[in-house]
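Something for you to look into today, if you have time. Just paste the record in under my message, thanks.
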Amino acid sequence: MSEFVSVLEVDRLPPGQGRIVHVRGRDFAVFNLDGEFHAIDNECPHKGGPLGAGMLVDGQVFCPLHGWAFDVKTGACITRSDRPVRSYPTRVQAGEVQIDLGANFQVQNQPAE
């Protein structure tokens, strides 16, 4: 079941850029590829680097910590095919980018305070 959630205004993410958004206890990396928006998990599976802060080149984002490359459309890891990140459907409505958090969304464990 789809559950689209607004995460940012379209004009706040220019083409060729990425951004980290925080939704329901999780961070997501959102990218604008020539006006088409894509969302993946923000955490690199290698050392936890913030993918939304990585360099975007030809549809791939490079983790800012160690350079692992990910396809922003699919979440596939180019560096290690066995270490993908999850991708999420997106849409634009009323000038806002929305991510589908649907039935498979889970909040990651929060550290105890």
